[in-house]
Design brief:
- The complex is a heterotrimer of chains A (about 350), B (about 300) and C (about 270).
- Chain B is mainly α and about 300 residues long.
- Helix content of chain B is about 70%, strand content about 5%.
- Chain B has a domain at about 80-270: MetI-like fold.
- Chain B has helices spanning about 20-25, 30-50, 70-75, 80-110, 115-125, 130-140, 150-155, 170-180, 185-195, 200-205, 210-225, 225-240, 245-250, 260-270, 275-300, and strands at about 55-60, 60-65.
- Chain C has a domain at about 60-230: Orthogonal Bundle (MetI-like fold).
- Chain C contains 15 helices and no strands.
- The chains are: A alpha+beta (about 350), B mainly alpha (about 300), C mainly alpha (about 270).
Chain lengths: ~350, ~300, ~270
């Protein structure tokens, strides 16, 4: 098994820089997810690793082989495409065998590998059909099986779940996680869906505008977002951001909101300058509670079943999303009281860099 | 079953990005065979034709360069001017008829019913015939001595008319032959356009209590107006190139009444072997067609703007 | 409103019958003996028919030579156009090479060049090469028609690029991608283009008329034209009509089988 190393990689389309001097280390056997909004360069980066886009500057290594000069077929990678890219005129068997035939693998070996991959993905009964006769979910499995037969050093997935309906997406997500456990091959998975990223990844690489915003485990990304961008991109509902003023309260940080509310956070003052800041509060840390310290007016109440999201307005008009129990008494127009867990707050300085409570 | 063919143009593995440039030239190999034909059979003859039109010469070669003399001669040549007039007359006779009849047929036959399918097949069938078969058929219709129309008029007690020998009637007869031959194309173009009109439009019109006539005038015709213009232009281009029908039915007669520009080019070139003069006439025709083709392009590319 | 509709349908049905009348007339004449027609074509209504004209065609052999020529020329041109247009269409749609876009525009401009503008010089070129009255002379000019390249380029462009990329990851060479992955997907376009080319070649008149001057090299279209030149004096009216049927019937039968493709091809070529 092989890791992937990107060193100072850049890519421009015409005059537009899509990937800017990006470096990244992916360990062997790791499942890494590239997460970011559309246009952030995540797919381009994946395609550069695959060899489908040229590399303008920098170097890509898979294992200890430099691959950025090799054609795609010689890089030892397999890819599952967003629209599956099954060859419509070939049977499923031929689809799976095509890559092996092109490199001259012996016929009996091809047959054995196709059979094994078909077994493991439970598509053995489909081998003699054509892609057009398959459902979306079946095509997805064939696309994965076609990648597996090649026994690659590295699997690449380009938003492979985006064309499945919700139920199938959840199931396939689980199966991909199991597949990774079973094969132990390095996998890179591109998505704009944070749930996919959180559930699948060993590590998430958050990309924005051709740069790495943050690399970390899913919980790292969620609990200690390195920047405002990461904080807002990850987490649902979107994190609450309020302007405030920082002051030193004996080592820890006191934030004063625009309406005068004072919040004692657990963030260390080290590295923070007194003055303007942005405070980030996830909805689960702003709870609707009888004896809460802050008063607000409920605007919209969204009942999700296991919890309730209450969209409120503070006294000065700033909007906030608070969480309540699944069975909530709150109704739109009500005045509610909020208990804010300021110890879990995140602070972002003027450059958008995140500061978090230690530990 | 390994790759049967050598990897002619695979990207060179060792030294891109410079290698990719080299592969770029290799990629051109795919278009090269066609481009060779294109240059040899279109570009070179086109340029050569333009050059020929400024020369005087015959089968055995160019005798002299005469500049624009061929063109000044053309515009003073009563026969050529007559052929231009004949060509325009023929276009006026055929294009409106082809367009309107084609539209009418399409409107009536735009239904999946079986009878409509049969009729569509019939109206398009003559399109696949060659000009020689078509003219043969219609000469046997127009023939004054035993032709179909003659037999009919005799049965009605009238004297048969020699359509193709009458200077007034020969061109209309050729026009009828042409309409019979070519009606399939405008019909299918209109049918294709009618299929594109969204069904919701008709449903909305029905909910708005629009009658059949109102629906046709306010919904259908506006929706296919672009096709209407395209059909007119396409037919103008096609009918401008009238050649086989008069060449086979009337030889341009009687008294040049049915001689079109293309027949003039053909006879000047291959009967009198005045290649320079024929080439000049061809350039004049080309210029006329080019104007129409540009109009077609403008209309066709307006599609994106809508 | 209903009745208005019915009037329109009735008119179209009548027009449809009128479309058929000339064909039926020729068919009827072809089934009469030349002698009977010499006396009066009215005799078609007497109910006496004969196959002697068709027997005469079979005995003649000339028509078969022309049909053979037409087949060779039409099939040769079709094969050539399909091969050249597929290669060029793939090249223009998928590959990068210097000058690609400008070359494609130039080829498209070629669509606007009518036969009349090039035919004189073409004829000269083939005269110099001494190629007239050969099959290549009848085939080669047709290979340059830009329509096929235009059609195939459009078609290749419509195939998702993911397929090429999947094949490249499957270690396929450029040619394998073309030959094994993309080309099989263009079969509908190949059918459309093939039928259109075959039909145009079969019916082409002007170029074979001036290039094939030797009776042995006539295509069927030119051959039929040559027999009707001295039409007024002909004594074999029935024979002539049988030839017309013989020339027209095969193509009509082909049309009945491939109607969908033919209509598509002809409409596509006009509406490009």
């Amino acid at each position: 098994m092989a890791g992937v190393t990107l060193t100072g990689v850049s890519k421009r389309f015409g005059g537009v820089a899509v990937i800017r001097n990006l470096s990244l280390d992916i360990a062997a056997r790791e499942f890494v997810v590239f997460l970011g909004p559309s246009g952030c360069g995540k797919s381009t980066l994946l395609r550069m690793i695959a060899g489908l886009e040229t590399v303008d500057e920098g170097e890509i290594r898979i294992g200890d082989r430099r691959v950025d000069t090799l054609p795609p077929g010689e890089r030892g990678v397999a890819m599952v495409f967003q629209h599956y890219a099954l060859y419509p005129h070939m049977t499923i068997r031929d689809n799976m065998a095509f890559g092996l035939r092109n490199i001259g693998t012996a016929a009996d070996e091809i047959a054995a590998r196709v059979e094994a991959a078909a077994q493991s993905l439970e598509i053995g009964h489909l081998l003699d059909r054509k892609p057009g006769q398959l459902s979306g979910g079946q095509r997805q499995r064939v696309a994965i099986a076609r990648a597996i037969v090649k026994q690659p050093e590295l699997f690449l997935f380009d938003e492979p779940l985006s064309n499945l309906d919700a139920a199938l997406r959840v199931r396939t997500r689980l199966e991909l996680a199991q597949l990774h456990q079973r094969l132990g091959t390095t996998m890179i998975f591109v998505t704009h869906d944070q749930v996919e990223a959180m559930t699948l990844a060993d590590r998430i690489v958050v990309l924005n505008d051709g740069r790495v915003e943050q690399v970390g485990t899913p919980m790292d990304i969620y609990l200690r977002p390195a920047s405002l961008f990461v904080a807002t991109f990850v987490g649902s509902p979107t994190i609450n951001l309020l302007p405030g003023k920082v002051s030193d309260a004996g080592g820890a940080t006191l934030v004063t909101l625009a309406d005068g509310t004072k919040l004692q956070t657990a963030v260390s003052m080290a590295g923070l300058a007194p003055g303007d800041t942005t405070i980030g509060l996830r909805a689960e840390h702003v709870r609707v509670a009888e004896g809460g310290a802050v008063e607000a007016r409920a605007r919209v109440v969204e009942r999700l079943g296991e919890r309730t999201l209450v969209h409120v307005e503070l006294a000065d008009g700033s909007p906030l999303v608070a969480e309540d129990a699944g069975i909530s008494q709150a109704r739109a127009g009500d005045t509610v009281r909020l208990a804010i867990n300021a110890a879990a707050a995140h602070l972002f300085d003027a450059d958008g860099r995140g500061h978090h409570a230690a530990g | 079953m390994a790759t049967a063919l050598p990897q002619q143009v695979a990207p060179v593995a060792t030294h891109p990005p410079r290698g990719r440039r080299a592969a770029g030239w290799a990629n051109a190999l795919f278009v090269l065979p066609y481009l060779a034909m294109f240059v040899a059979m279109i570009v070179v003859p086109l340029a050569m034709g333009m050059w020929l039109s400024t020369t005087k010469g015959d089968l055995f070669g160019v005798e002299a360069h005469v500049g624009l003399a061929n063109f000044t001669r053309l515009f003073g040549d009563p026969i050529f001017l007559e052929t231009v007039g004949n060509t325009f007359y023929f276009v006026v006779l055929t294009v409106p008829a082809l367009t309107l009849i084609g539209l009418g047929l399409a409107l009536v036959l735009n239904t999946p019913a079986r009878w409509a399918t049969v009729l569509r097949t019939i109206f398009f069938a003559s399109t696949v015939l060659s000009v020689t078969v078509v003219t043969l058929v219609w000469r046997l219709v127009f023939l004054p001595d035993g032709g179909l129309l003659a037999v009919i008029s005799e049965a009605l007690g009238k004297t048969p008319i020699a359509f193709l020998n009458d200077p007034e009637l020969a061109m209309p007869a050729i026009a009828i032959t042409t309409i019979w031959w070519c009606i399939g194309l405008p019909m299918v173009l209109f049918l294709a356009a009618l299929q594109q009109v969204p069904r919701e439009l008709y449903e909305a019109a029905a909910l708005d209590n629009a009658g059949r006539w109102t629906t046709l005038r306010r919904i259908t015709l506006p929706a296919i107006s672009r096709t209407f213009v395209l059909v007119v232009i396409i037919e103008i281009i096609l009918q401008f190139q009238l050649f086989g029908q008069p060449q086979l039915m009337t030889l341009g007669g009687p008294n040049n009444a049915t001689r079109p520009i293309v027949l003039f080019i053909y006879e000047t070139g291959w009967r009198q072997w005045e290649l320079g003069y024929a080439a000049a006439a061809a350039q004049v025709l080309f210029a006329m067609i080019l104007v129409a083709a540009m109009a077609q392009y403008v209309v066709a590319s307006r599609k994106g703007a809508q | 409103m209903r009745s208005q509709n019915r009037v329109a349908i009735a008119l179209v049905v009548i027009a449809g019958v009128l479309m058929l009348v000339p064909m039926l007339w020729v068919l009827a004449l072809s089934l009469k003996s030349n002698a009977a027609l010499m006396v009066d074509t009215n005799s078609v209504f007497d109910g006496v028919f004969t196959l002697e004209n068709y027997a005469a065609i079979l005995g003649d052999g000339q028509v078969f030579r022309w049909i053979g020529n037409s087949l060779i020329v039409s099939l040769g041109m079709t094969a050539g156009v399909l091969a050249l247009s597929s290669l060029a269409g793939y090249g223009f749609a998928r590959l990068e090479f210097p000058g690609r876009n400008i070359l494609f525009v130039i080829v498209l401009l070629g669509l606007a060049v009518p036969e009349q503008a090039v035919i004189i010089a073409r004829h000269q070129l083939f005269s110099w090469a001494g190629w007239h009255n050969t099959y290549p002379a009848l085939i080669i000019p047709g290979l340059a028609a830009p329509f096929g390249v235009f059609l195939m380029t459009q078609y290749f462009r419509a195939i998702p690029k993911e397929l090429d990329e999947a094949a490249m990851l499957d270690s396929a060479s450029r040619f394998t991608v073309f030959w094994k992955v993309l080309l099989p997907l263009t079969i509908p376009a190949q059918a459309t283009l093939g039928i259109f080319t075959f039909l145009s070649a079969w019916n082409d008149y002007w170029w074979p008329l001036i290039s094939a001057t030797n009776k042995q090299m006539f295509t069927l279209t030119v051959g039929i034209a040559s027999t009707q030149m001295n039409f007024a004096q002909t004594e074999g009216l029935g024979f002539l009509m049988a030839q017309a049927v013989f020339a027209g019937a095969p193509i009509l039968i082909v049309y009945l089988f491939f109607q969908k493709y033919i209509v598509q091809a002809v409409a596509g070529a006009a509406g490009r």
